[in-house]
Amino acid sequence: MIRYNIPDLIQCLNTEVEDALIDRMPSLTVVGSQWGDEGKGKIVDYLAEDAQFVVRFQGGNNAGHSVKIGEELFKLHHLPSGILRRGKFSVIGNGVVIDPGVLIQELDGLESRGVSTKNLRISERAHVIMPYHKLLDGTEERLKRGSRVGTTGRGIGPAYSDKASRIGVRMCDLVEEEVLSEKLAFLIPHKQRLLEFYDDSTRLDENKILREYSEYGKRLRAHVTDTGALIGSALAKNKNVLFEGAQGTMLDIDHGTYPYVTSSLTVAANAASGSGVPPSAIGDVYGVMKAYTTRVGEGPFPTELCDDIGSKIAEKGGEFGTTTGRSRRCGWLDLVVTKYSHSLNGFTGIAMTKIDVLGGFDKIKICTHYRLDGKKVTRFPTDLRVLQRCEPVYKTLRGWEEIEGKRLENILAKGFRALPGTMKEYIRFVEKEMSVPVSVLGLGRRRNELLDFRKKKWKAK
Ligand code: GDP
Ligand code: IMO
Ligand code: MG
């Protein structure tokens, strides 16, 4: 319990402590504002420069975060994007589900490229994705036929289901062979029966799974700890903590386009619960917003463009999934979606990405609201049958030329004033509609290809 000593607090006034409290930028939480793949990896990698801790708080290896540094491309699935910056602590929080084999591969892959992973800390409370979760993910999808979600097939849903059913395996179990063995003695026959019920003939070999997973446990043991306590003490020491969301708000299990969602809470509020820190630790919230919209997998997408414009955006933006390689569906920016997202996350800044991809179009559209039975709809509908009947209504803005080569260099050197006038109009329109400033603007894939308009910044420590 924190005990406040009133005389001490009064003494703090006009002292360094008070200055520090006023000047200090709070922690920063970065989440996707749409259906994922907004460019969170690139933005977090950039913002991590002045952070000491970068924390993933939900999701699993369904995430695919691409970060391009110079000519080198890194694809991260489990690891926070801060891992690419030397000397930072990377934390996988309790809200994440972990496929230990995949995580080890990712760690080995980075080490072989000269990236140190020794500062990785993994929550002992995080749940483990087991082999039967991956099998069940596929089987359940096949059984759904027409109503399949189009999952990444990584076992995410079944792992979170077991967590909620209180039969999950946690990292603290994985690293204790005896505990793991006891858990598997119950779980394997249980999951075998489930597979048989689904007409899946795969045989689960309990001994083999125990051997394989206890090896993973041994390998990861040194990284496993009480990460909530670690982040809590970092916050108490005024360290800069960056919380990195995976997926996007419209894929949130409670608030997204259910059932076409992932199985975790992707909104900023979960940065606290999924990391084991209080809500007051969340700090500023940046919504990563692609200048257009994409979606992978099934589910409604009101502004989807199933025409040449959609294909051109997909081609120019390289819209293929980082995790599964599937083509991403593309469409215009949808402000009904992003405003709904803001109402859930409380954005204090927008990190707008991929605005360069829209270069070369004569006209660019932005959906400002939907129309249903002649009435204006501004709040994203809950019932997908209602959403299906909504027509997007667009505002058309003038486009701008391609931004590349010397032109891009000039913009990166001179900043906002060097942007094409029509691009500035696009940005101003979005800011006004959202009532949130664009704090960071992505103009290309590489780390340095962005403009930073933030007024408040972390002090490098
Ligand atoms: P995430 O899952 O939100 O991290 O996004 P992904 O990495 O799955 O997909 C975003 C893609 O866009 C990646 O290939 C990034 O390298 C790329 N990207 C990110 N920001 C920008 C940008 O501002 N411009 C361009 N052209 N590409 C970007
Ligand atoms: P990042 O972090 C885009 C989608 C899947 C599917 C649905 C459920 O890279 O933005 P799941 O495997 O989670 O049960 O699949 O969610 N999905 C994503 N789409 N980006 C992601 O992550 C996604 N993670 C899951 O395509 O529609
Ligand atoms: Mg992605």
Walk me through the structure:
The chain is an alpha/beta fold. The chain folds into 3 domains: 6-124 and 224-284, Adenylosuccinate Synthetase, subunit A, domain 1 (Adenylosuccinate Synthetase, Chain A, domain 1, 3-Layer(aba) Sandwich); 128-217, Adenylosuccinate Synthetase, subunit A, domain 2; 290-452, Adenylosuccinate Synthetase, Chain A, domain 3. The protein is built from 16 helices and 20 strands. Strands 9-7-5-2-10-1-11-15-19-20 form a 10-stranded mixed beta sheet, sandwiched between helices. Strands 14, 16, 17 and 18 form a 4-stranded mixed beta sheet that branches. Helix 5 crosses helix 6 and helix 8 crosses helix 9 (206-220). It is globular and about 65 Å long. The chain starts with 5 loop residues before the first helix and ends in a 9-residue tail after the last strand. The protein binds guanosine-5'-diphosphate, 6-O-phosphoryl inosine monophosphate (IMO) and magnesium ion. Guanosine-5'-diphosphate is lined by residues 32, 36-42, 64-66, 68, 318, 322, 353-354, 356-357, 442-445.
Give a brief description.
With 461 residues, the chain is an alpha/beta fold.
Could you name the key traits of this structure?
461 residues, alpha/beta, Adenylosuccinate Synthetase, Chain A, domain 1, Adenylosuccinate Synthetase, subunit A, domain 2, 3 domains, 10-stranded mixed beta sheet, 4-stranded mixed beta sheet, globular
How would the global form be characterised? Answer: globular
> How many extended strands?
20
Low-confidence stretches: 1-15, 17-23
- Termini separation comes to 28 Å
Task: Please indicate the percent range of residues in DSSP E strands (runs of 2 or more).
Answer: 15-25%
CATH topology of the largest domain: Adenylosuccinate Synthetase, Chain A, domain 1
Share in helix: 25-40%
- Could you give me the name of the CATH homologous superfamily of the largest domain? Adenylosuccinate Synthetase, subunit A, domain 1
Overall mean confidence score, pLDDT: 94
Q: Looking across the biggest beta sheet, what order are the strands in? A: 9-7-5-2-10-1-11-15-19-20
| Structural class estimated from helices and strands | alpha/beta
Largest sheet data: 10 strands, mixed
| CATH architecture title of the largest domain | 3-Layer(aba) Sandwich
Radius of gyration: 23 Å
Count of helical regions: 16
